[in-house]
Structures are given as C-alpha cells and as structure tokens.
Amino acid sequence: MLTGTPLIIVFLITMVILFVLLIQFKFSATVALVLAAIILGVASGMPLNGLASSINGGFGGTMTSLGLLLAFGGIFGLLLTESGGTEELAKAMLRKFGKKHDTLALNLTGFIISIPVFFGSAYIMLAPLLESMSKITRKKLPVYVIALYTGLCITHSMVPPTPGPVAVAGVLGANLGFVILYGCILGIVASLLCGWLLSTPLGNRIGFSMEELDEQSSEELAASARTEEELLARNPNAPSAGLVVALILFPAVLICAGAIGVLFITEGPVYEFLSFVSNGAIALFFAMLLTGFCLRKYLASKGTVMKLIDQLTDKVGNVILVVGAGGVFGQVIKDTGLADALVEIFSKYNMPILILAFLLTLIIRASVGSATVAMLTAASIVGPGALALGYSPIVLTMIICAGSMGLSIPTDGGFWIVSRMSKLNTNQTLACVSIPSTLSCLVLFVLALLLNTMTGILPGL
Hints:
Elements: H1 4-24, H2 29-43, H3 48-82, H4 85-97, H5 102-113, H6 119-137, H7 141-158, H8 163-172, H9 176-205, H10 218-223, H11 228-231, H12 241-264, H13 269-277, H14 280-294, H15 296-299, H16 305-336, H17 338-346, H18 353-368, H19 371-388, H20 393-403, H21 413-421, H22 426-452
C-alpha cells in the first residue's frame, strides 16, 4: 500500500474526482461517495478483499451510530411538520423576535441545544423549522441553515459532554469544568460572529431560489398575498408553539438527564435506566411516539399515525443511505492510513507547537471526516510535548477542539445530514457548511491564542 506523500497525492486526486462527479456531472451522492471510496482504495494499493471489508464496515459502523438516530429523528421532525407544528413554531419565533432578529434566535437555539444533544440529532429535529420560517419570511433557506448550523457545530465541537472535547480533556488532563466554561465563552463569540452576523450576507449570496423548496399549496399561495399580521396569526387547526417546543425539548431533557444523572449514580437499576433513555436513538424513538400520540388529532386527515410513520420512513431512507455512503468513504480513508501519512509530513516541519496542534487537527478532520479521530490523534501526538513545555491543558484543548470543526466537506457525515435534511445540492451545502465552519474555527483559534496570553491570570489556566 502507498504511504506518505504518494498516498496524500492519491487522496487529493480522489477528492477532485468526487467533487467533479457531484458538481459537474450531478451524480447521486450515494453513488459518487462509494465510487470515490473504491477509486481511493484501489489507487492506494489496498487488497481488494480488504477494500470490500472497509466498504461494508464503513456503512455498518455508520448505521450502528447514526442509522436509528436518523430514522427516528427524521420521522419525529416530519410528524411535527405534517401536523403544521413547525410552521406554528416558526410563526411564534417571528412574532417574538421579529424578522430582524430571527437568525439570532436560531443561532442561540443551536448553540444551546447542541450542548446536551449531538449535532446530528439536533439538526434533524430542527431542520423542518428552517423550511417553515423560510416560507413565511421569504428569506433564502441558506440564511437560516447557516445561523442554526454554526451554533450547533460550535458547541458540539467545543463543549462537553460531546465525545470529542471530553476525550481530549481526558488525554491532556484538563479540568472538565474549565473546558466547559472556556468552551462556552470562546464558542459564543465565534457563534455570533460567524453564525448570526454572517448568516444573512453569506446566505443571500448562495444560489438558491425559493422554488427549490417544496411547491406551495394553493393555501400557501393565497397566504403570500396576506399582510404579515395575517400570515403570522395562530392557526387553530395546528398544534400550539408551546406544545411543539415541549416535544422538541423532550428528547433533549432525556439526554441531559442521563448525562447529568450518571455523574452521581454509577451503578444499579437507576443508572441503567438513565443510560438507556439518554441514548440518542432511544430518546428520539420515544419522542417520535410521544409526538404521534400528542399530535394525532392534527394528523387525522392523513390517516392513522402508524400508517403515516410508514409513509414517512420512505422519506428518510435517502438520508440514511447518503450518510451511510459517507461512512463508507470515511472508513476507506481511515484504512488507507492517511492520518499517519499526514502526521509524518507535519513532523518534518519545525513550527510552533500550538499552530502544529491546530493545523494537524484541521487537516486530519477534513481528510478522514471525523472530528473525534482528529482531536484524539492531535492530542496524542502534540499533547505530551506541549504540556512538557508548560502550555495550559485548557488552552491546548481549546485549540485542538477549534481545529476539529473547520473544513467540513463531503468526507463528513454531518455535511450530508445538512444536505439531505435541508434539500441542498452539493454547492449550496459547501457554502452553508464549509465556509462558516472554517471561519468559526479560525476565530476560535485566534481566541484560544489570546487565552494563552492570559495563562496564570485567568482561573483554571
């Protein structure tokens, strides 16, 4: 098998092929990702039986971690949409915050909800809301995608209890409480700069026509001629915004209860129960059932809830297949040893250790598509030397976590979740995901460097 620089060159060529297939030839994302995985595996010299195992293992591993989460979360969100609930929530948010502050509300919502809830779960739950808000305000959907995505992504990458920051803190011996504190402080600055303030100017530049949303019904077309007050009026035939918020918070509360509860209870039936219900897929499964029960009267015109769930399963199937194909590509990349090749290249350059930690995390994350793998690899390589030189474990954790959220490209499963849940093509998703995530990681890196200058002054550093 190829190693070192030749392997990196083969990978870069494969990425060019993937982008050409997706953008120029409009290939199905599923087909393009699996084909790119095969090209990379063959070109890098992987044994064909090993390549087949990587392909199957990549899909299976992704489905193990995300399959049920995508299925139950997708149906949960669609039930809210079919009942008119997400539209009512959108109206309530616009009545409360107004069009002027709607992106701020979404950005803060994402920032807060992604602390206890994994990025994928949170985006799946809230994606229907973005479409409803876009239809009401006639603002481009990418404006709302950027605002929400950036808030979600930053706390997912920077703030425990998500696995990456927790793992890095453990490797570096950083105090988890201070990681949460400084992750929130640095994160909120980056979120507001790159998610709230950037969302409108960047979103409006993205090629997207409102006709790319689902075709409007005659009722929606008639509504477009109404005054804003009439448009935002409460619909008595849809669930209230309060009920919708309660249903959205239900899985978040389950996940939070488990994350907090297991800190105080480490064994026994209560511990097992909390561990069970706080699992993302299980929490969304119960949320799906509860939503179907609570909204049954609003869904009655579409048949029984169970028949509707069967129908909605078809809609989420494409999302699951594309994300699984992304997992295939990521697994083949990992099995080629690309991360080791990148480490070998970086080890040849004598650069400041904090910059090395950031760039190593950033490039491995973009290459293998896994923020957690990138964090752990960088922490394991750079951590001992940086700590020996006297660098703060908190600062080093912030820098590595910052690097893990940049360059979100088609190697990343989250890229395809945004693409499919918000019905964006590859170009649109690159603009909505890659640009704000990369700008955010740069802002976070600068803030972490500033934090480094305050070592010995601020608490915990």
